[in-house]
Every structure is written in C-alpha cells, then in structure tokens.
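As promised in the previous annual report, we have extended the structural survey to additional targets. Below is the entry for Cadherin domain-containing protein.
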Amino acid sequence: MEKFGGKPITIVKAEDSDAPGPQSEIRYAIVQDSSTNAWKYFRVDEITGGIYPLDKFDREAQDSFIFDVEAMDSMQSSLPGATGTNKDIVKVQIFIGDINDNPPYFTEKRYEGRVKENAEIYTDIITVKAQDLDRRKLNLNLIKIAKSKLSKLNLK
Ligand SMILES: [Ca+2]
Ligand SMILES: [Ca+2]
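The corresponding structure token record, generated without further manual editing, is:
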C-alpha cells in the first residue's frame, strides 16, 4: 500500500457531452456487487476517478481483481423513462504484481540415496527438487543477472 506513495493504481475517466453544469458534473463510484468482493479492496476518488488500494495483496492468493466502476452526472436524467442521473459503467481489472516473498521449499521431507562404495566421481545418486510459489519469470531474471555477472568476471 505504502509503495504507491498516495498515487492511484490507475485512473478511470468518463466524459459527458452536456453543457457545463450539474448535467455534466461527473462523480465516480465503485459498484458494490454481491457476487464478488473485489470492490472491497479498492476505492475510487469520486472526483478524479483515481483508484487506490484499501488493503495489502498477496499475488499467490489472488493475482487479479475485477470490479465495476460507474460514472454519474449530477442532475436528474431527462432521457425518456429514466430515473435518477445518467450513468455509465466500466469494468476495471487490477493485476497484482509479484514480489519475491516466498522462499523455495522442498517437496519431500527427506531424501535417501544409495551409492556403491567404489562408484565413479560424479555418478548421479539422487535428484532433490524444491519449488517456489513466486512467479517463475522473476527467478529466471535473477538467474540471468547472475549469469551476466559471471560472464563479466570471466572476461577480466
Ligand atoms: Ca449529462
Ligand atoms: Ca510473490
């Protein structure tokens, strides 16, 4: 949350073709939909349309949120049959960026390997395997960085 430093995650913007005045003054609001709780994690500034987080996120628990934002003007609608103000609704999807907040973990509690006493050096004995819940891309990037550092060292 602090990471955004008060800056919105994204900004929604609606336009209204009516003349200046309450008939074209736009207010934004998140639609409180009972079929999802995604809207509970965000707020929208009713004047600027800036969308802000209301909570911390865990990409490994949920990696995106979808909710609706509506834009309303500020005067009773003159459209035939309409009640209330004129409005439009847009879907907003927020993707949660990954951070490296999970350590690797072994998938087995214990490994047992056997090797003959006269085995050649470098004989395969057993393969151990760990997993990491963070996004694979991040780990690959780290490996690339490590490799490029190594090749620089080799050049010297
Ligand atoms: Ca209007
Ligand atoms: Ca993560």
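The two ends are 43 Å apart (CA to CA). The first strand starts at residue 10 and ends at 11. These points will be discussed at the next consortium meeting with the crystallography subgroup.
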